[in-house]
Amino acid sequence: MFQKIGKYTALCGSSMLIVMAAATAQAADGQVEFTGVINDNPCTINSESVKKSVDMGQVRIADFASTVGSTAGSTPFSISLENCSGPTLKNASIKFSGQQAVTDATVLGMTGENQITGVGIQINDARTGSKLALNTASSDYVLRPQGNTFDFTASYVRLAADTDEVSGIGTGKVNALASFDVTYK
Question: Which of 127, 116, 138, 122 shows the shortest CA–CA distance to 178?
Fold first, then answer.
């Protein structure tokens, strides 16, 4: 009787080894890939600020002073950051960039076909009202926990003087595109 139990036990043990070997072979048929991102930004850009459209409205040529650099049609806009929580990074600055105007590299030029001439878009820091030149970081904003909104204004700016009773500013569509970068400090 011991011999029968021994053979039966040996047979069961062999079957378990075959099953275990088969299970091990099946485990090698798949894989799991792990991906993610780690960054040191203490905030995220609010989804409404990622791709923003600012309607500058209509202005008349007569709304501009005759001097180059005069502005018209100031329009407010904001960039918001959320989920802010950076114990070591306490400040942020904003830098706008884009196609520069041909005659003034500090303001946005027009993009696309059939664009108006003699005008650009000037961005101002709403805190001070001062011009924020393209490719130049704003002064620092203090980051508050959770959410922050940074306010700016955009204005049409005259880039060409009038000559012999002809306006230096054309009429028509205005399209300009700016990108912005947030630098944390």
Answer: 122
Report pTM. 0.75
Name residues whose C-beta falls within 8 Å of residue 89's C-beta, 6 or more positions apart in sequence.
40, 42, 143, 184, 185
Cα 100–Cα 105–Cα 106 angle in degrees, nearest 5: 100
**Please, which residues have CB within 8 angstroms of residue 112's CB and are 6 or more apart in sequence?**
173, 175
Residue 14 in tokens:
């062999």
User: What are residue 15's phi and psi, to 5 degrees?
Assistant: -65, -40
- The string of pLDDT tens digits covering residues 40-63 is 667 889 999 999 999 999 999 999
Biggest CA-to-CA distance, the chain: 123
**Nearest one of 161, 105, 99, 107 to 132, comparing CA atoms:** 107
